[in-house]
């Protein structure tokens, strides 16, 4: 097992983590590590670090380790943990805050499929203001190499009228891009 | 009752049966719907992982459109509902965030229009009215009501009777003459959009949900979310293949079940399903 000097870690990362607490509004210092979150988490069985340990790592300043974990991206944001947590820790909000940081810093190579999915989703959202489901499905199948996995569903989906060929559109086609720009300006400077 | 209708991307395309049945049932029950012109995508499943503010501003934009119509907004898609509720909650409780959202959407939210789920809307309708509309009761049909996550959690955001054991859908099934089964997986997570990125994990979650429903004696599973539907209906064959199971459990939208019980023609809705929908009523 890798040795970690926690005093050093906190010196290095304490400030970033305090900023994370402030921006996300999730005060991980309140967590007393009962483990209830992980016990009920539907995705824990595929996570590399369980949810309560993500919090413990943050409490200890292990920021790099958290950024490298796939857990924040595996979290389904189902809020089972948050609903049950005796200390009212909003774990899904925390996981999402970590995602936003890693996504915008382009530190998502350890979660390749997620990167493809979210960038495709956002691409269609910016372009049409609504999600072009066929476009999304094609992007995913081509870029994740999933083509053979799901090809059995593609044709029936089309036959059953479940996928529209033409993309949807809103009238004001620059609306979303402009909203995103303004959001970026306002949020700019955040972690 | 008149409501502003926010269908969202899925109901406009892959989950048309949900939309069709919802609209038909509302008509039967005297609920007038007006689609919000130029509604935009709520940003689920991605915007929240890219920008917190944008993820609130997207549904806020549509909610303000509803407010301009002078109506409350119904979002049948559970994900749209939850995302819109997050925006509503922040705008009602966090003045600083409200100001930021308004800057992004360049409009003001007065706090008059509220976001409603299908279940909330239906629970406002008197029991007698629903019962009176039923012409083909679901006699003897055992239904597992599957609520999933985003319709019921987090509880301070979603207006729910009990986040661990919600009952609003069960009540509807009973009013239709069916038998809601008692089962412990009502609010387990199906993995939602992770089906696109972590398929195996989601197939396992789906398998568990189907198994528990089956063990509880359910003939049918009722849902109120397009992603729950995809993960349990469209993926059922893949689940069977992966786990050597032989599930053949129809998964229907609660509004499709209502439509069927109310004598509305459901053949075009059910044609879109992967698991053939057969509702076996007892004589
Ligand atoms: S349930 Fe809450 S207090 Fe317990 S370990 Fe998880 S986050 Fe911490
Ligand atoms: S929100 Fe994330 S961490 Fe919490 S229970 Fe759901 S999947 Fe697990």
Task: Record the SSE blueprint.
The complex is a heterodimer of chains A (about 190) and B (about 280).
Chain A (H helix, E strand, L loop, with lengths): L5 H19 L11 H5 L10 H9 L3 H6 L2 H4 L5 H5 L6 H14 L7 H17 L4 H11 L3 H13 L15 H13 L4
Helix pairs in contact in A: 1-7, 8-9, 8-11
Chain B lengths: L1 E4 L2 H5 L3 H13 L3 E4 L11 H4 L1 H17 L4 E2 L3 H16 L1 H11 L9 E2 L1 H6 L3 H7 L8 E4 L22 H8 L3 E2 L18 H17 L4 E4 L2 H9 L1 H8 L7 E3 H8 L5 H5 L12
The complex binds iron/sulfur cluster (2 copies).
First-last Cα distance of chain B: 35 Å
Domains of chain A, number: 2
Please state the second-level CATH architecture of the largest domain in chain A: Orthogonal Bundle
For this structure, the quaternary state is: heterodimer
In short:
By secondary structure, chain A is mainly α. Chain A has helices at residues 6-24, 36-40, 51-59, 63-68, 71-74, 80-84, 91-104, 112-128, 133-143, 147-159, 175-187. Chain B has 283 residues and is of the alpha/beta class.
Descriptive overview:
By secondary structure, chain A is mostly helical. Chain A has 2 domains: 6-107, Fumarate Reductase Iron-sulfur Protein, Chain B, domain 2 (Orthogonal Bundle), CATH 1.10.1060; 111-186, no CATH class. Chain A is built from 11 helices and no strands. The longest helix of chain A is centred in the N-terminal third of the chain and has 19 residues, at 6-24. Chain A is globular. Chain B has 14 helices and 8 strands. Chain B is an alpha/beta fold and 283 residues long. Chain B folds into 2 domains: 2-116, Up-down Bundle (Glutathione S-transferase Yfyf (Class Pi), Chain A, domain 2); 126-270, Rossmann fold. Chain B is 47% helix and 9% strand. The model of chain B has no long low-confidence stretch (mean pLDDT 95). In chain B, helix 9 (168-175) links the parallel strand 5 (142-145) and strand 6. A 4-stranded parallel β-sheet of chain B has the order 2-1-3-4. Chain B is globular and about 55 Å long. The structure holds iron/sulfur cluster (2 copies). One iron/sulfur cluster is lined by residues 31-37, 52, 55, 81, 85-87, 89, 91 of chain A. One iron/sulfur cluster (SF4) binds next to helix 6 and helix 7 of chain A.
């Amino acid at each position: 097992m890798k040795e970690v000097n926690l005093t050093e870690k906190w010196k290095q990362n304490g400030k970033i983590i305090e900023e994370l607490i402030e921006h996300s509004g999730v005060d991980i210092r309140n967590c007393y590590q009962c483990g209830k979150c992980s016990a009920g988490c539907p995705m824990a069985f595929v996570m590399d670090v369980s949810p309560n340990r993500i919090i413990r790592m943050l409490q200890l300043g292990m920021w790099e380790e958290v950024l490298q974990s796939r857990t924040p991206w595996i979290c389904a944001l189902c809020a089972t943990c948050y609903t049950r947590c005796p200390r009212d820790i909003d774990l899904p909000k925390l996981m999402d805050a970590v995602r936003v940081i890693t996504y915008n810093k382009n530190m998502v190579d350890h979660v390749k499929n997620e990167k493809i999915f979210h960038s495709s989703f956002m691409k269609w959202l910016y372009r049409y203001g609504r999600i072009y489901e066929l476009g999304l499905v094609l992007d995913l199948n081509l870029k994740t190499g999933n083509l053979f996995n799901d090809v059995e569903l593609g044709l029936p989906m089309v036959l059953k009228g479940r996928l529209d060929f033409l993309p949807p559109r809103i009238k004001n086609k620059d609306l979303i891009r402009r909203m995103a720009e303004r959001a970026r300006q306002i949020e700019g400077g955040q972690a | 009752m008149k409501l502003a209708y926010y269908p969202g991307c899925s109901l406009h395309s892959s989950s048309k049966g949900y939309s069709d049945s919802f609209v038909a049932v509302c008509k039967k029950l005297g609920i007038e719907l007006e689609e919000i012109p130029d509604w935009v995508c709520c940003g689920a499943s991605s915007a929240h992982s890219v920008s917190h503010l944008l993820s609130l501003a997207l549904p806020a934009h549509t909610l303000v459109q509803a407010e301009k119509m002078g109506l409350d907004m119904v979002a049948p898609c559970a994900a749209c509902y939850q995302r819109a509720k997050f925006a509503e909650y922040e705008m009602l409780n966090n003045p600083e965030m409200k100001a930021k959202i308004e800057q992004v959407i360049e409009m003001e939210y007065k706090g008059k229009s509220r976001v409603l789920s299908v279940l909330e809307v239906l629970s406002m309708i008197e029991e007698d009215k629903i019962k009176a509309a039923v012409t083909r009761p679901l006699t003897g049909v055992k239904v597992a009501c599957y609520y999933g996550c985003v319709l019921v959690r987090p509880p301070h955001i979603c207006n729910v009777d009990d986040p661990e054991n919600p009952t609003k859908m069960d009540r509807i099934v009973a009013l239709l003459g069916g038998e809601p089964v008692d089962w412990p997986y009502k609010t387990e997570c199906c993995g939602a959009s992770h089906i696109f990125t972590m398929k195996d994990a989601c197939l396992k979650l789906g398998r568990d949900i189907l198994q528990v429903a089956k063990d509880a004696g359910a003939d049918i599973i009722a849902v109120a979310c397009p992603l729950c539907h995809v993960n349990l209906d469209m993926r059922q064959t893949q689940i069977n293949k992966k786990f050597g199971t032989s599930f053949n459990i129809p998964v229907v939208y609660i509004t499709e079940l209502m439509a069927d019980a109310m004598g509305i023609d459901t053949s075009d809705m059910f044609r879109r399903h992967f698991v053939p929908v057969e509702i076996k009523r007892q004589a």
